[in-house]
Amino acid sequence: MSEQISVLVVDDEPIIRAGLSAILDSQTDITVAGTADDGEQAVEACVRLRPDVLLMDIRMPRRNGLWALAELGRRGLLGPGRSRVLMLTTFDLDEYVDDALAAGASGFLLKNSSYEELTGAVRAAAAGHSALSPAVTQRIIEGHLSGRRRPSDHDLARLKGLTEREVDVLRLIRDGLSNAEIAERLVVSLHTVKTHVSRVLTKTGCQSRAQAAVLARTTLP
After folding, report:
1. What is the pLDDT of residues 45-59, one digit of tens each?
2. Closest to 206 measured CA to CA, from 101, 94, 97
3. CA-closest candidate to residue 60, choices 93, 36, 30
4. Rounded to 5 degrees, what angle do the CA atoms 49, 52, 56 make?
5. DSSP per-residue string spanning 164-215
6. Does the structure show a pLDDT above 70 at 209?
């Protein structure tokens, strides 16, 4: 991630695009690199601009945000050293959260989030952390998502290359612990934890900690 966080704002409503862009551009460490009004434009702009973060609405005409998220993953444009996606919507329905996180989104914010939540989430996503609104976090903690989803053979196979310690780290990611908290829990250095997290993401094919957490919730006891 560069010192300045570059953001691509994607929403089909011009007023919302302008408002979000104004809020983000007012921050000294965030720059709006461009905007798009549907999923197809978002993918094209991401290829061209390579932003640190896409702040993208889910419901849009033509190609929606979930389509764009899946296409970005298919093209290898998501993950460490590439772009992160923060989904933004007025809807807090379970299926949107589930699908977005499982497809590799780094976070999920409601459009009624505060300015502080919005800018904080962009910074967290750019740094490779999960960025979820309190309402979404509570929903996940309560098990509404994991209770609906059964692990597939493919999901279980993604864990086979993990060492015992990497499984421990994945379980702690699932429980919402930060790198510092994982280091304290396992009595290891922060550098060691970062190495383990990087290997977990690479071996499982996850583009974000949030996606790894969803995988862990469906596969680990």
Report:
1. 999 999 999 999 998
2. 101
3. 36
4. 85
5. HHHHHHHHHHHTT--HHHHHHHHT--HHHHHHHHHHHHHHHT-SSHHHHHHH
6. yes
